[in-house]
Amino acid sequence: MTADAASAAASAPAGAPGGPARGPRARTGASYLRYGAGKVGGAAVSLLAVLLTSFFLFRLIPGDPVKYMTGGRQVSAEQLAAYRREFGLDLPLWEQFTDYCRKALTGDLGTSYQFRAPVIDKITEALPNTLLLTGTAFVLYTALGILLGTRSAWRHGGLGDRLNTGLALTLYSIPSFWLGLLLIIVFSVGMGPVPGLFPTGGMESGGEEGFAYVVDVAHHLVLPVVTLVAVDYGQTLLVTRSALLDEMGSDYLTTARAKGLRDDLVRRRHAVPNALLPTVTLVFINLGRTVAGVILVETVFSWPGLGGLFYQALSVPDLPLVQGLFFVFAAAVIIMNTLADLIYPLLDPRVGR
Amino acid sequence: MNTQDQHGRARPGPRGRRSRTLRFGTAALMLWAGLATPLGPAPQRAEAAEDKQVLTVAVAQSVDSLSPFLASRLVSTSIHRLTYEYLTNYDPKDARPIPGFATKWSPSADKLTWTYTIRSDSTWSDGKKATAEDAAWTFNKIMTDEGAAPANGSYVTNFRKVTAPSPTKLVIELKKPQATMAALDVPIVPKHIWEKVGDFSEFNNDKTFPIVGNGPFVLTGYKPDSYVRLKPNKDFWRGAPKFDELVFRYYKDGDAAVAALQKGEVSFVQGLTPAQAAALEKQKNIKVNDAPGRRFYALATNPGARTKDGERFGDGHESLLDEKVRHALFMAVDRETIIDKVFQGHAVKGEGYIPPRFPQYFWKPSAGQELAHDPAKAAQLLDEAGYRKNGDGKRVGKDGKPINYRVLCHATDPNDKAVGQYLTEWWGELGIGVTLNCLDNVSDPWLAGTYDLAFDGWSVNPDPDFVLSIHTCAALPTTPDAIGATDNFICDKKYDDLYAQQLAEYDPARRAEIVKRMESRLYDTGYMNVMAYPNAVEAYRTDQIKSIETMPSDAGNIYGQDGYWSWWSAVPAAAEESSGGSGSTGVVVGVVAGVVVLAGAGVFLAMRRRSTADDRE
Amino acid sequence: MTTEATPPPDATPPTDATPPVAKDGGGGGAGAGPRALARQRRLRSVLRFWRQYRTHRAGLLGLAALVLFALTALTAPLTVGSDVAGVTGAPGRPLESPSGEFPLGTDRFGRDLLGLLVWGSRVSLLVGLLAAVLSVAIGALVGITAGHFRGAYATVMMRITDWFLVMPTLVLAIALATVMSRSLGTIVLAIGVTSWPTTARLVRAQTLAVESRPYIERAKALGGGHWHIMSRHVLPNVMPLVLAQTTLMISSSILAEATLAFLGLGDPTVVSWGGLLQEAREAGAVSSGAWWYLVPPGVAIAVVALAFTLCGRAVESVLNPRLGVAR
Known about the structure:
The complex is a heterotrimer of chains A (353), B (617) and C (327).
Chain A: H1 2-15, H2 29-57, H3 65-69, H4 77-86, H5 93-105, H6 119-154, H7 159-172, H8 176-190, H9 210-248, H10 251-258, H11 263-293, H12 295-300, H13 306-315, H14 319-347
Helix pairs in contact in A: 1-9, 1-11, 2-14, 6-7, 6-9, 6-11, 6-14, 7-9, 8-9, 9-11, 11-14, 13-14
Chain B: H1 2-9, H2 12-39, E1 54-59, H3 74-83, E2 88-90, E3 97-99, E4 102-107, E5 113-118, H4 132-144, E6 159-166, E7 169-174, H5 191-194, E8 217-223, E9 227-232, E10 245-250, H6 254-263, E11 268-270, H7 274-281, E12 286-291, E13 295-301, H8 323-331, H9 335-342, E14 347-349, H10 375-384, E15 404-410, H11 414-430, E16 433-439, H12 443-448, E17 453-459, H13 465-469, H14 493-504, H15 508-525, E18 528-534, E19 536-541, E20 545-547, H16 565-569, E21 571-572, H17 582-616
Parallel strand pairs in B: 1-10, 15-16, 15-17
Antiparallel strand pairs in B: 2-3, 4-5, 5-7, 6-7, 8-9, 9-10, 11-19, 12-19, 13-17, 13-18, 14-18, 20-21
Helix pairs in contact in B: 8-10, 14-15
Chain C: H1 19-24, H2 32-54, H3 57-79, H4 113-149, H5 151-166, H6 169-179, H7 184-194, H8 197-211, H9 214-221, H10 226-262, H11 273-282, H12 291-319
Helix pairs in contact in C: 3-4, 3-12, 4-5, 4-7, 4-8, 4-10, 4-12, 5-8, 6-7, 7-10, 8-10, 10-11, 10-12, 11-12
Organism (chain A): Streptomyces phyllanthi
Subcellular location (chain A): Cell membrane
Transmembrane segments (chain A): 40-61, 131-154, 166-190, 210-231, 275-301, 321-347
C-alpha cells in the first residue's frame, strides 16, 4: 500500500501549485481566510462522510453482537430483545445513525461490547501509545528521507545516488511485518554472534518509575521504530529528490552559482528550501497514514496501541469500538491533509486563491 | 591530502547540518518526554528492592473484564481464581473437591438443601473478615440482578434461596437435586465493597487498586494489553505464595512470547506450537511441559437445528440426518495422521467424549463399537445409504446435486485450518466436496444452524456436568432467534434419560458409570467425532522457577488449572540466576545507545567520503 | 499533469478518428490506408518507447526479474504441479530444514517449500495483477469521465475521489475483507476498491489536458459524441499513463495481498506467499528458528514488488522525462 501513497503524494504537489504561473503576491488575509474556511469546511464534510461509512459499512460484518455479549449462556428471545433495546440495536438503522451522530458530537462513541467500557476510554487509553510509536518513527523517517533525498538529488546519477535510491526502493518493497519478524529474530532473539539486545514486544517491562521508565519505553521502542523508518523513509526520499531535481534546472540557481556562491551554500540556502515546499504536503499526509498503517507493526511487536485494538474489535465484531477506531484513523489522515492545505500557501506564495 | 582539503572547505556545511539534526533530535526527545511520562502512573511499590523475585507469565488473551460478574475469558477467570476464594477448590492430585472458602458441605436427606461451613480464618485484604454473609450476598446478587449474571448466571438457575444464618454457615436451597454443588466455580466477593456498585453490567473493577480480595494474591495493577500485576497475600490461610510478585505480561504474538522466554524476559509461556516446543526442548534452563490436556477437539455434525418445540431452522445438509453417513464421515478421518502431522505428537488420539485426563469419567469404545479409520468401509456405508457416485466421481445427494459440506472453522486456530485441509482431501476421495468456512467469529452461522459440520472443542471441568448438559434437549433454544445452551442441537432421548439419572446421583462411582454410558451413546450417534485430546504444551525457565505444581500432580499442566496451585506453589530459583532486572536494562540501553551513535557516525563519515569522492568526478 | 511537457507517443491526432468509420463499413477500401498507417505509427512509437526504456538499467533489471517470475508462474503446472499443495501426500516430515531433497526445507505439513513457493507465485501474481487492473480500471473510468463531463458530475466524482484518497487504505481493505467471505475474489475486491483514487486524479488531469487541444474541438464539431471522444481520443492518450500506473499499482497490490493474507484474511486453502508467511508465523517459525519457512516468501514478495516498481518508474520516466526518476 505504501507505493500507492507515494505516487499519490508525488502527484499531489505537482497538482497543487495550480499551473505554472508564478504570479504576483496577490494574496490578502481575507482571501486566505476564505481559502482556509473552504478547506476546513471540506474536511468537516469528509469527517461526516467517514462517520456515515464507518457506521453503515461495519453493519455488514456478519455476526450478531448481542449473541457475542451473552457468551454461550442460555438466553431467551425476550432477553435478547432486551439487550438489543439496551444497546439501541432494535431501532431502525437510520435512527441508530442519527443517534450515533448526536452522541458522537458530544464525544460519546458508545460502549464497547467486549470490554463493557466507553469506546472513547479505550481509544484514549491506546492513542498515546500509538502516537508515541508513530510520532517517533515519523520524525526520524522524515528527517532521514529529506536528508538523503537532498544528497541524492544534488549528486544525481552518481554512485551515491544510485545506492541511495536503490536501497530506498528495496526497503520500500519489503512487507513491513516481515521486516519486523526478521528484526525480532536477529536483534531480539539473537542470532549467531548478534546478542538479543532488544525486547521482543510490548511497550514496557512494568514496574519501572521515573527516568528508568522512560528508558525502558525507549528500549522497547527501538525495533518497531526501526521497522517503520526502514519501510517509510523511501517515499520521503524519492519525493524530496524529484522535487529538488525539478528545482535544480531553475535559472535562479544558475544565477546564484554565477554570483560565485559555493555549491554547498547554493544548495542549502536556495534549492533545498524551495524544493521542500512540495514535501510539506507529503509530510503531513504521511503522518496521518502512518497512524493508520501502524496496525501491522503493532501486531508484530505486541504494541498496545490502536492497531491491535482495531484488529481485536473487528473479530467480535465490537461495532462501537470498530466504528470509533475507524473514525480516528480516517480523522488522522483528514486533519493532517487539511493542515497541509492550510500551511502550504503560507509557505509558498505561488499558491493561494 | 586532497580529501582533507575538501573537507576543510566544506566545514560550514556539516556544522549547519549537524545543528539541524540536533534540533530534530531535541524535538524527538521532547515528543517522547511529553508522551512517555504521563503514560505510566507508575504502580506504587512499597519498597523498590532490586532482588525481588518476580514470576512473569506471558499471556496473549485480553482481559474482558476484571469484574467476576462479567469475566468469561480464561485469562480473567484465572486471575479471579488467584484473587478471590471460591466455596471449594480441587485437589491438585485427582481434581476431587476439597475445602476452599467452605471447609465442609453436605446435602440434606431430600437432596434439596446444601449446608456449607465457611472458614473463619479468611480476611479480605483491607482487613475485614470474610464471612458467609459475603457468599450469600454474591449468590443473591447473581440471582436477582440480570446485570450481574453474565459470567456465572448458569450456576444459580436451579437455586431457590441462599441464606447465611451465621458468619460461618451458608445454606443453599435447590429447586431440583443437583450433584454439582461441590463444584460451584463462583468467585465470592466482599459485600462491603461491591454493594456500593451501581450498574453491575458496566462496572469493570479496574479503577482502584489494590483490588480487595481474599485469594492467595492481591491484584495491584492493570494496564490493558500491557500487564496485570499481583502481590502475594501474606495472610492467606493456606500460606503465602513464595514469589514476591506475579506479573501477567502481554505478548500478542506467540513467537514474541517464546523469544521472551528464551531471553529470560518471562518465566513461563503456554500454548506452544510443536515447532516451538521442539526448539525450546534443546535449550538450557528451559523445561518444556507437555501435559495431557483437559480439552477435546472434535468435529461436530449439524443434526438439523431445531428449537425445544421441534421447530426446524438452519440449512444443514439432509444427508447428515442419516447415521450411516455420519459413521462414514467418521471412518474416513484418520485420527492417527492428525495426531502425527498436525499436532506432531502433542495430543492423544480421540476416543470418547471426556479426555483421559479425568480417569474416573474417561471412556473408550469397545472393539466392536469402534468406528476405526477405514475409507473402504466408509465408501461402502455411503453406497448403502444411497449416496452413490455420479459420472464425475462425486457423490450425489437426494436432491440430485453433488454433496458439498460447509465446514465451519475458527480462523484464529491453525489446527482447524490444517485439519480442514486433510478433511478436504480425505472426503474428496470419498467423492464428497468440502468448503472450509473459516471465520473469526463463528457464533452467527453456528447459532443459526447454517453449517454442515463444525470444528468444536471444550475444556472439560473436573465435574463433567456442563459439557454433558450441552447435548441435552433441554439445552435447545426456545425459539430460532433465542440462544440455547446447546452445543450443536443434539437432542437424543436415550442420552437425556441418562443425563437426568446422573444429575440426581450423589454417589460418585455410580454417577461415573452413568456418565460413561452417556459417552457411549453419544459415540454411537456419530454426531461428535472427537479427533484428539490436545496436550497443554508449556515451557518455563528453570533458572527462575525452581519448582511448580502441575495438575494433576504427576504429568499435569500449569496454565489454566482448576485452582490456583501453579502460581501459588511456584518456588523461585536461587536469586543470583534471575535475569532481566532493571540494572541490566540500563546496561543494555547504554550499549544500544553507543551502537546507534557509532553507526550514525559511521554513516555520516561514509557519506562525507562519498560526497567528496563525487566532487572529484 | 506535467506529461504535456513531452508529446505522448500517440499524440498526433485526427487520423485516430477514422477507424470507427472503417468499422462502419462505409469507408470500404479507403479505410485500409489510414488503418495501416495507424498501425505503423503505433509500431514506431512502441519501438521508440523501447529504445528509450532500454537506457534505464534498473528498468531492464526489473523487467528481467518479472519475465523470470512470470515464466516460473506459468510453467508451474509442468514443473511442480498442483500436487505440491496436497497435505495427505506430503513427502517430508514437518519443518525439515533445507537439504538436497528439499532445497528450501518443508512446511508444517511436510510439503516441499520450494514447490510451494513456485506454486504460490501463481496466486500472488494473479491477485496482484487482477487487483491492480481493477483498481486502475476504476480509476481510469472515474478519471476520464470526470475530466470529460465537468459540471456537477465531475465535482461529485472528484469529491468522492478525494474522500477515498484520505481513507486509510489498509484499514478500509481490512474492513472490507472482514465483511466479505474469505476468498481470492474478496482480496482482489478489497484492494481494487480501496486503491483507485490516485489513478483517477492522474487520469483526470491528463484528460483535461488532452481535451483542451484543438483537434478535440474539431472532432466535436464533426459530430463526435461523448463516447467517441472518450474512447477514440482521450483513452489512447491516457493509455501510457494508465500502463505506468498499473505497473506501479501491481507492486503495491502484491504487498497488500501479502498483508491481508498475513492478517489471516486470505483463503486458508489457497497457497500464496502472504499465506505462507502467515502459516509460518502460526507454526512458530520465528522463535523456533525455521528461517527457511519465513525468509523465501518474504524475499519473493520484496523482489517482485521491487521489480514492478523499477519497471513502473522506468516507464514513467520514459513518458515523462521531467520527473527525472532513476536517471
